[in-house]
Design goal:
The chain has four helices and 13 strands. With about 260 residues, it is α+β, with helices and mostly antiparallel strands. It has one domain: Creatine Amidinohydrolase (Alpha-Beta Complex), CATH 3.90.230. The strands form three sheets. Strands 6, 7, 8, 9, 12 and 13 form a six-stranded antiparallel beta sheet that branches. Strands 1, 2, 4 and 5 form a four-stranded antiparallel beta sheet that branches. The protein has a three-stranded antiparallel beta sheet with strand order 3-11-10, with no helix packed on it. A hairpin with a 2-residue loop joins strand 4 (about 90-100) and strand 5 (about 100-110). Helix 1 (about 5-30) crosses helix 2 (about 35-50) and helix 3 (about 120-140) packs antiparallel against helix 4. It is globular.
Length: about 260
């Protein structure tokens, strides 16, 4: 069952989304060589609480952190560790905020760079990889319009990602979001049925649109024996981009606008 939100509930989610976007933007500004994943996690919790909200991910049973960290070949749900970032790494930060009874969820992936670091062919490949994921997210959101279906989002993401020679991860998908962090409907980044058979996008629906993709093949595995971290099976780089949006009569409203 899809949970349609009232205009007042969407306003609350917009407030929470603004908090989340500010926190994530702050975290990304601190991403540099030598910073540890756990330091970013500690900062995220501090910032969220200072803004009068709660870390949404800490409300997930069994999870003890504020963010999930996807470094290099980690796809999603990476548990922050003492690992210190190095030039050439890529890191995806996934974060959630719980505010006045509602969740918002977002993620961004960036490359660790240094102005003294000479770029290489690999850097160019990584830049293209990340730009592709960001474009797939932006274009996927554009078609999240009243009267369209989830399949329109899925197809747009798949066409862009696979058109660039990368792989959409099949076992991990976007989702509805609201009073619960994960609600119906699922929002895959790929189309596995006719668009007409996918859920209709109705006014008041709030969803987390996610682009979850690998530079190599689509297959993933659990790793690190922590029960959470999922990596690419072939150890290829992975990217993650996500925004929470609302379906409105005026078009898609990004609730976690950076």
């Amino acid at each position: 069952m899809m949970h349609v939100k009232t205009s007042n509930e969407i306003s609350i989610m917009l407030e929470g989304g603004k908090i989340l976007a500010e926190v994530l933007s702050n975290l990304l500004s601190k991403v540099r060589p030598g910073v540890s994943e756990l330091e970013l996690d500690t900062l995220a919790e501090k910032l969220i609480k200072e803004k009068g909200a709660e870390p949404g991910f800490k409300r997930v049973k069994g999870y003890k952190h504020t963010i999930c960290v996807s470094t290099n070949d980690v796809v999603v749900h990476g548990v922050p560790t003492e690992y210190r970032l190095k030039v050439g790494d890529i890191i995806g930060i996934d974060c959630g905020v719980y505010y006045k009874g509602f969740n918002t969820d977002m993620a961004e992936t960036v490359k660790i760079s240094n102005i003294k670091y000479q770029t290489s062919k690999r850097d160019d490949e990584i830049d293209k990889f990340l730009k592709t994921g960001k474009r797939a997210l932006e274009e996927g959101i554009k078609v999240a319009r009243l009267g369209n279906r989830v399949g329109h989002i899925s197809k747009k993401i798949q066409d862009i990602v696979e058109g660039a020679g990368y792989s959409v991860v099949r076992s991990l998908v976007g989702h509805g979001v609201g009073k619960s962090l994960h609600e119906e409907p699922e929002v895959p980044g790929y189309l596995n049925e006719r668009i007409e058979q996918t859920p209709l996008l109705v006014e008041g629906l709030t969803i987390a649109v996610e682009v979850i993709y690998n530079m190599g093949k689509k297959d993933v595995i659990y790793a690190n024996n922590d029960g959470w971290s999922i990596k690419s099976k072939d150890s290829s780089l992975s990217g993650l981009f996500e925004r929470t949006i609302a379906i409105t009569k005026d078009g898609p409203l990004v609730l976690t606008q950076v």
